[in-house]
Inverse folding.
């Protein structure tokens, strides 16, 4: 297939026209021996061009042909492919959408024949058909092969449009059901004695239970076991546990044919800490006495799928009354809402904009909203009791609980998002819910959804449109789901008439005046004294809310706080009688997500906003530590003690964030703080002191519960990184080292075990999910990094640092400072590392070069893909890393001779370097300004978004909120970005000279 030099062949042009992105490679493949006889057949080219990825489909077809057992088999495949359109569409459709199934076909080249049949029963397969497809499996490997063969048939009909997304999800759930039954049968055959002792039922939860499974998903289950007549119950339960565990391994373990999917039993009573198999009576006792709200929400989708189905039905019947009575529990709605918020908060910042399932406007928003309404209204309306999201949504609309138009929009959006999720997972059969960022992947994804004209742009637009619909309707259904009646304003009493309020809201810049008016009506209607005070406050508060980037959020949160505290005698009196309190509250509620979130977890903290502003002064570390230690002493156990300490931490984080916001915004009586560095120091010092106090309290709680008053070993915590430098931000982890020293007469092994238990328990307790933000402890700066022991003795640290320490470890020790635990041990650790971090002769040029190499590598590896380096506050030019490494290189070189440089704090070290003449006044000022600004940007992002981030937000309203925090008025976000670039650029030029040029 040759063409004149400089001219493209007609085949090349045809391939381009048919959607191939690499026509040259496609030409070569079509010229291969396997396709020689059909390469000019227009039927084949048209069929390839109709797939999601013609290049991928062609490569898969060539591999499949090459894998055939001889020329006869190869010719049979080609003849069938050309002659039979159903097979052609199915086979090429799969090859163009799934690299993983193409791999399966290459390993099992005869499995393509599973796609040849085209009978009515093929259109909608059920459990019986899949059980027949798995019937010949005799071991885990053959079960995987049979499973993939069945999966192939589902995927083929899915990509060809023979079945729509809900049917696909239902078939995947049916295939999972058949697979669990086959796996349990294999487990029973391997241990017939165990199978004879017990009745074991497998109950599916989650998407499998709801008949809406993904291509690749954990299959959530719980197990119910009973003894057969005459058998001992304990022996029967042990036998059932062995069978259940074996069944899980059969499905989950990786073999030469890969794995099927993980079977996850963590939704069982007590989670991972509970027994794998319980009797029905034990399940019932747990749910009646101990279960949390989310556990009843999980049971909405419970369905017997394998084992003793009669026992499974008994389980579901016994628990149904508890599930549908869950809405009567105290704080039910708040618990469900909190669970959803916690899911969003735990999404890594780098993923949230690509999260199809968990992010705002994602699948979970639809599912949570539907489930909440089901639990609320399903108590009295049995038609709502479906485990399938779309069926439940349809029933909610039919019953009038959701508007029909809203339900139709949600249904459409949910189907689109699930289709995206299916096709993303189908490609490599990997469990992921992230929308790809590679253009080729996006193109294939768009084409697989029949978006053929500019598939990338169209896909992105449609995805964002559907996500926006979901987010808007989720808020409408989830946060305001017909649960609160809205009272009308009493005639002649309201300070604001409905029309006047609407006009004022529009003039003040509220994006949704109708919603805002509803909040006003709820707050101010009626004849109570509470409503009268609100009517006095609201006209002023509306103006303060409007002086922010998000007045709608400010008003909404004010309503929430008022609802939470409206019955307390002091709340409205505080706002009425202390003008500073009302204005401070308005500023805090409308500045972003972090402070309101902290406040809503303990609304009584609003009292801190009064007292003329004095209540916002951060408390000294000694006072914080004293309060936390006292709380620990009063607690009955370590969990209660640390819970109390975390409650104090949450309250103090609110105090600090509120002080930061009020200082940045200013009030009518007090202008904004002119010294930006002072605000940075306030936050860094307060959060660092608070973290140190929290660790001290947690350490005391753990030691007290495990060992009483005295641990067998002295134990100290050394702050590192920003923690040691008193520069923590709102979302920072606590970088630490742990050091211990056995007490006299204590065996070293006993001491080490005790120290390690302390560390493990501290980390666990500080991360237990609760209303309080977790405190993550990061010990990766320890000797040998993640590979080294978590805890060492002082002698071990000394020996390691003397013999093995690397440049980066000496560099990291510049920030080391004792923060908690044994003071004498901490002091001796610092004395031991001082000669390392402040070497008498400084560091040589080779060490300086190594530091520069480390910095360059860190920036190249850690800078997020697609991020604008010039706007990255941490790793970008002129950002935190540039300034800090420059200052730290000065400390390593001159710290032994200049006492002022022996500090863990960046700004203090920079000032000392300037005073010692090591850096000019102008250069020091430039670096200080850049460091302060970059720190302020990171603090602002956390305050506005409620999640840590190193770059400016892309959402206009969030960007405007960051600008307002940094002192820029509405419409000046561009000026803010330009100013940041200028400041960073000036700092980078200083860094180029001092850090890279020599110092």
């Amino acid at each position: 297939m040759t063409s004149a030099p400089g001219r493209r062949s007609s085949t090349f042009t045809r391939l381009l026209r048919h959607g191939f992105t690499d026509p040259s490679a496609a030409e070569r493949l079509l010229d291969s021996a396997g396709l020689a006889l059909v390469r000019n057949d227009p039927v084949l080219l048209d069929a390839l061009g109709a797939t999601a990825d013609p290049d991928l489909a062609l490569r898969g077809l060539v591999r499949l042909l090459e894998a055939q057992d001889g020329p006869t088999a190869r010719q049979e495949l080609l003849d069938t492919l050309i002659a039979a359109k159903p097979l052609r569409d199915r086979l090429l459709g799969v090859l163009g959408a799934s690299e993983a199934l193409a791999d399966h076909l290459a390993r099992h080249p005869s499995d393509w024949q599973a796609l040849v049949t085209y009978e009515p029963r093929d259109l909608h397969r059920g459990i019986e058909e899949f059980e027949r497809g798995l019937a010949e499996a005799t071991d885990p490997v053959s079960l995987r092969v049979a499973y993939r063969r069945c999966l192939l048939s589902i995927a083929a009909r899915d990509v060809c449009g023979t079945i729509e997304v809900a049917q696909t999800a239902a078939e995947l759930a049916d295939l999972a059901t058949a697979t669990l039954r086959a796996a349990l049968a294999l487990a029973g055959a391997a241990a017939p004695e165990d199978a004879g002792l017990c009745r074991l039922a497998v109950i599916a939860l989650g998407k499998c239970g709801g008949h809406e499974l993904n291509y690749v998903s954990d299959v959530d289950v719980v197990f119910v076991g009973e003894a057969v007549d005459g058998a001992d119950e304990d022996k029967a339960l042990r036998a059932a546990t062995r069978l259940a565990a074996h069944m899980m391994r059969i499905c989950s373990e990786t073999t030469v044919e890969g794995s099927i999917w993980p079977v996850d039993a963590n939704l069982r009573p007590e989670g991972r800490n509970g027994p794998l198999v319980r009797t029905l009576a034990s399940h019932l006792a747990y749910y009646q006495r101990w279960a949390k709200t989310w556990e009843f929400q999980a049971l909405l989708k419970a369905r017997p799928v394998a084992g003793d189905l009669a026992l499974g039905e008994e389980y579901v019947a016994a628990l149904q009354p508890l599930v549908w009575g869950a809405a009567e529990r105290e704080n039910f709605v708040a618990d469900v809402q909190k669970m959803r918020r916690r899911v969003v908060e735990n999404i890594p910042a780098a993923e949230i904009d690509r999260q199809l399932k968990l992010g705002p406007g994602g699948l979970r928003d639809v599912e949570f909203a539907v489930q909440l309404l089901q639990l609320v209204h399903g108590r009295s309306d049995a038609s709502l009791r479906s485990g399938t999201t779309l069926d439940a949504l349809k029933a909610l609309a039919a019953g009038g609980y959701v508007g029909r138009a809203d339900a139709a929009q949600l249904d459409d959006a949910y189907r689109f998002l699930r289709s995206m999720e299916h096709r993303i997972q189908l490609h490599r059969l990997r469990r992921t819910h992230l929308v790809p960022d590679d253009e080729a992947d996006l193109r294939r994804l768009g084409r697989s959804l029949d978006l053929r004209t500019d598939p990338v742009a169209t896909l992105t637009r449609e995805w964002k449109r559907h996500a926006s619909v979901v987010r808007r309707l989720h808020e409408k259904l989830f946060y305001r789901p017909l649960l609160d009646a809205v009272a009308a304003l009493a005639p002649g009493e309201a300070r604001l008439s409905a029309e006047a309020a609407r006009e004022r809201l529009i003039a003040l810049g509220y994006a949704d005046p109708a919603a805002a008016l509803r909040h006003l009506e709820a707050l101010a209607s009626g004849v109570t004294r509470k409503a009268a005070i609100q009517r006095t406050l609201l006209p002023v508060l509306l103006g303060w809310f409007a002086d922010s980037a998000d007045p709608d959020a400010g008003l909404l949160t004010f309503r929430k706080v008022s609802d939470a505290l409206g019955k307390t005698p002091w709340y409205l009196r505080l706002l009425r009688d202390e003008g500073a309190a009302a204005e401070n509250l308005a500023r805090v509620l409308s500045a972003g997500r972090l402070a309101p979130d902290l406040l809503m977890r303990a609304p009584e903290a609003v009292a801190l906003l009064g007292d003329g502003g004095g209540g916002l002064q951060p408390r000294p570390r000694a006072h914080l530590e004293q309060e936390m230690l006292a709380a620990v002493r009063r607690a009955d156990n370590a969990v209660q003690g640390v819970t109390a300490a975390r409650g104090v931490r949450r309250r103090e984080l609110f105090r600090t964030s509120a002080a930061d916001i009020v200082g940045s915004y200013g009030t009518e009586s007090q202008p904004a703080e002119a010294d930006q560095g002072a605000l940075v120091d306030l936050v860094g010092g307060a959060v660092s002191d608070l973290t140190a106090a929290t660790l001290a309290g947690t350490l005391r709680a753990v030691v007290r519960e495990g060992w009483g008053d005295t641990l067998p070993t002295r134990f100290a915590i050394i702050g590192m990184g920003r923690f040691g430098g008193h520069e923590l931000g709102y979302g920072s982890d606590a970088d630490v080292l742990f050091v211990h020293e056995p007490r006299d007469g204590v065996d070293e092994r006993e001491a080490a075990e005790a120290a390690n238990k302390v560390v493990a328990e501290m980390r666990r307790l500080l991360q237990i999910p609760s209303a309080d933000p977790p405190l993550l402890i990061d010990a990766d700066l320890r000797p040998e990094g993640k590979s080294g022991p978590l805890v060492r003795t002082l002698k071990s640290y000394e020996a390691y640092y003397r013999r093995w320490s690397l440049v980066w470890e000496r560099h990291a020790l510049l920030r080391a400072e004792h923060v908690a635990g044994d003071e004498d041990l901490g002091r001796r650790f610092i004395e031991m590392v001082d000669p390392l971090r402040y070497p008498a002769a400084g560091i040589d040029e080779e060490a300086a070069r190594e530091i520069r190499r480390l910095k360059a590598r860190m920036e190249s590896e850690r800078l997020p893909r697609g991020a604008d380096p010039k706007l990255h506050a941490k790793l970008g030019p002129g950002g935190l890393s540039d300034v800090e490494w420059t200052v730290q290189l000065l400390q390593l070189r001159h710290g032994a001779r200049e006492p002022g440089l022996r500090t863990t704090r960046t700004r203090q070290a920079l000032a000392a370097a300037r005073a010692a003449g090591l850096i000019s006044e102008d250069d020091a000022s430039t670096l200080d300004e850049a460091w302060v600004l970059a720190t302020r940007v990171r603090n602002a992002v956390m305050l506005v978004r409620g999640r840590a981030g190193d770059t400016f937000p892309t959402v206009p309203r969030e960007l405007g909120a960051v600008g307002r925090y940094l002192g820029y008025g509405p419409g000046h976000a561009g000026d803010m970005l330009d100013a940041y670039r200028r400041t960073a650029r000036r700092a980078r030029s200083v860094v180029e000279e001092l850090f890279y040029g020599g110092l």
User: Anything to note?
Assistant: The beta strands are 198-204, 219-227, 263-264, 277-278, 303-307, 713-719, 734-742, 777-778, 791-793, 817-821. The chain is about 60% helix and 5% strand.
